[in-house]
Amino acid sequence: MDMKRDYYEDIELFPGWVEKFWFFLLLVFLGAFPFISNNYLIYVANFMAINIIVALGLNILVGYTGQISLGHAGFFAIGAFATFTLMQKASFPFLLALPAAALISAIFGFLIALPALRLEGPYLAIATLGFGLTITQVIGMIDLFGGRTGLHAPELLIGPWELKTDLDLYFLLVPLTIGLIIIARNLTRTRVGRAFIAIRDAEIAAETMGVNLIFYKTLAFAISAFYTGLAGGLYAFVLRFIEPEIFGLYMSIVFLTMVVVGGLGSIFGSIAGAMLLSWLDLELRNILDIPYLGNWLKDLSREYFSITGVSNIQYIVFGGILVLIMLFEPHGIYGFWIRTKKYWKTWPF
Amino acid sequence: MTDFLLVLASGITAGSSYALMGLAMVIIYKTSGVVNFAQGEMGLISAYITFMMLDYYGFGYLATFFWAFVFALFLGALMEFAILRRAKDPSVLGLMIITIGLEMILLGLVSWKFGADPKDMPFPISPFESIELVENIYISVLEVLTIGVATAVMLILFLFFRFSKLGVAMKAVQQNPMAAKLMGISTNRVLMITWSISSFVGALAALLIAPANMGPFMMWDPLLKGFAAAVMGGMTSLGGAVVGAYIVGIIENFFGTFISIEFKSVVAFSIIVIMLCVKPSGLFGRHYVKKV
Predict the structure, then answer these.
(1) Least enclosed by CB within 10 Å: which of A154, A214, A273, A327?
(2) What global pTM score does this model have?
């Protein structure tokens, strides 16, 4: 029966054999995927994996702790530039440089959290927005980080294994992403995760119950920045070339969109949102190639808009998604999934 | 000494356009508690409508500006009526995310239609015309106009919130929506009018910025500086936002001239962060204790 007698049953990672079975099937699929698909799809999968890591990090902050951030592209940039710089200038091996970069990003997260302790809602959004914009400008001005011209990827070696193609990266990224998903999932069901949720739901109540606000808020920022920095370091290798302009405000907003679309405060939601939005992002880059819709848009652009600016439709699509989700389904894909599940479980009634 | 005055003058003019954006932001925040990230783009679209009417269809200046302002008022009302009011049990975070979405939609529309390249806005006053203020201190006519408009808007808004019935109603809606409703104020309508006014002020700012620098991203910088100004003033005080805007403008220009031009754009955010750390309620905001 579906009866639960214990709190720990409620938060189990795999509540039954059904989940274990599906998880096993997913692993098999992910293992077999590179051999049944083409190069482009592997690239898409890598892109999705990185965005999933960022979405997890951002969701821990926004969805679980209730602290908004519009500056995650900044942490992403720190991760990317720190990884490259550590490997090229300090000749760190990759396996050391990546965590070190993520740690640097986490330290920045900690520093941002210090003013954030006194801020909430709109103020925090503005402060993090400022951080995100400032950090890329600062990076662009320092020659160590390549200045305005950017940096090229160094050789990526893990022991004797040299990662050159997207396929190699796939085998690095997918296990890492699965590991990070499980860590995030575990985090949210520990004492720390429950403290985050308590802070989100009622800050004052949480404090009276003995949750140390200063500690947990800074921790949330640091963990979130760590995830994002890690993803940034990996993203740099997927792109093979980084420059400060990539990490603009638009990127921060796309990250936020992923979390909102997937569902605030849900790991499943982060994954779904990140995958959907990454796919949309790549798809919309050559929007005119989409069958039927592409031609129609071409005509529309020629008639009323301009054909040169057609790539900006992705701003409209993303903005529209953000508004519609907030208006009609504030819990995102996760909320929709829960509702559907409930509907079919209790169907005739 | 000349240098000093010159930098001061450019600081004041920069401050004036920040002040307009800051005011627009504060008006909405004061009444509805929403930080409007779409503010800049609402002004942007009004500026581009003006550009289109002047450049493509050849309307006269007077007619164009009139219709542009009508459009701005209408746009603000529409945003509130069609979108923000429809949000289901909105949280502050949710409303903020909606305005971010609106910002992207408007930005996308403008850059889809006009492309990313900068445009030359026809304007009755050339941005390169200048007058000699004191000996060797030149200031462009457009800058004089900006300062004048900003001052006028400040005065009008101040008088409006202090003495007019509608202005007082707006204050009431902010302080206690329920009580305001009981006193017979239609809070929805008041909010709609607030958005209209704010959109109008934002459009003024955009129109004054456009002749010198027009492109789809022209409003980002003023918007962020306007934020900085509003935060300095405590987000709810009109006077505070204006003072904050001039402080930001002047400090930024002095920093750019005498310390480091490269890090000029970083100054505003450092000011925000320091300000928020030292005195989160702003220069003029009243201290606010959260009640349970």
Answers:
(1) A214
(2) 0.88
